[in-house]
Amino acid sequence: TRTFRSSAVASNAVYGSPKTGPYSNLPFKVKDRKIPFGLFYWSITGLFFAFPFLSTYWHMKKAGSF
Predict the structure, then answer these.
(1) Can you give the pLDDT at residue 2?
(2) Structural domain boundaries of the chain?
(3) Which pick of 4, 16, 40, 59 has the fewest CB atoms within 10 Å?
(4) Assigned CATH topology for domain 8-63
């Protein structure tokens, strides 16, 4: 039978060594950002929450209700 092997040296040469530590498994940067992550998160969440209310207000204003 044939066995397949890959050495750590060979894979590190192509992909590099993985990062270790907290937040290293996330696909986005949490620490040392220009805009703090909390501000970014809550502003996007607020925008998505407010969108239907703002859209409803806009259409009612166009229709002459306000």
Answers:
(1) 65
(2) 8-63
(3) 4
(4) Cytochrome C Oxidase; Chain L (4.10.49)
